[in-house]
Specification:
Blueprint (H helix, E strand, L loop, with lengths): L10 H5 L4 H16 L8 H18 L6 H31 L11 H6 L8 H33 L6
């Protein structure tokens, strides 16, 4: 009795596609835009342009087309990771320059700063507030970043005729 091979793609094989370079590129653009002085007031350019850049980068390095699910994944992670990196860099950079941690006599302050990720949160309510902020960032990354990733796949993807 011969076994029959399915001609449809296995959904788990789609999940194995490595989107990390596109996510890294998109999150770097998002973080850069969020760290700019006047652009960081409005987060929408970073949440749109970062995923678009990630989708563009990912589609240019591949020989095949991404689907919309992969575009949404790329958009979400680009916006989310870019925001987290921008917040962490902003907090650590403020402390680094304020406390003159580049000087040799202040080097002993650097390891605790990096271990605590630059956050001055000592109370449970402070941690709850931080978790709420991360949840809100995830919601906005899903609401704005994922559609931007889908738009990037649609705009920069190859047309079916070519």
């Amino acid at each position: 009795m011969a076994t029959r091979m399915s001609t449809t793609r296995n959904p788990s094989s789609l999940a194995k596609i490595d989107l990390k370079p596109g996510i890294y590129a998109g999150s770097a653009i998002s973080a850069l835009l969020l760290l700019l002085p006047y652009v960081n007031v409005v987060f929408v350019p970073a949440y749109v342009l970062g995923p678009l850049a990630g989708a563009w980068f990912e589609l240019r390095r591949r020989s095949w087309q991404l689907n919309f699910t992969q575009g949404a994944t790329l958009g979400f992670y680009s916006a989310f990771y870019g925001t987290i990196v921008a917040i962490a860099f902003d907090q650590i950079a403020k402390r680094f320059f304020h406390e003159h941690l580049w000087r040799f006599e202040n080097v002993y302050r650097l390891p605790p700063l990096l271990a605590s990720k630059g956050l001055d949160i000592d109370t449970p309510s402070g941690w709850y507030l931080l978790m709420l902020q991360i949840a809100i960032i995830a919601i906005f990354a899903g609401a704005v970043g994922a559609p931007a990733g889908i738009l990037g796949v649609k705009l920069f993807g190859r047309s079916p005729q070519s």
